[in-house]
Amino acid sequence: MIEVLEDKKAEKLVLLDIHNISSFTDYFIIGNGTSDRMLQALADAVLEFAKQKLGSTPTLEGNGRDGWLVVDLGNIVIHLFDPQQRNYYKLEQLWEKGTRLLTVQ
User: Fold this and answer.
1) How far apart are the C-alpha atoms of 20 and 87, rounded to whole Å?
2) Rounded to whole angstroms, how far apart are CA atoms 74 and 56?
């Protein structure tokens, strides 16, 4: 999933392992998009990859205009933010007891 997001130019990607502190998922991927269209394109790319390569149909919540989209793949939840919303919600701080496995600028 990180590669899919990188290919679509997602920014400031973080992969967190939260399986020891979360009952609903094992990993968070958090990334930025620079516009509502970009956020939607990132989510669409993840949905297409999941359908084609994983044979799954993830759940998508939100829309790009709101500045936060969530793609739920079950064991991986992907949060796509505009920079302002990411700064406001501070998920990395909220889940700081998780293990940061990867950071991609």
Assistant:
1) 25
2) 10
C-alpha count within 13 angstroms, C-beta hemisphere, residue 83: 4
- Calculate Rg over the CA atoms of the chain: 13
Condensed to tens digits (0 to 9), the pLDDT of residues 44-80 reads: 999 999 999 999 999 999 988 999 999 999 999 999 9
Q: Is the pTM of this model over 0.85?
A: yes
One-letter amino acid for residue 50 of the chain: A
Q: What are phi and psi of 65, to 5 degrees?
A: -65, -25
CATH 2.40.110.10 fits 2-91, yes or no: no
Instruction: Report pLDDT for 105.
Output: 83
**Beta 11-17 vs 27-32: how paired, if at all?**
antiparallel
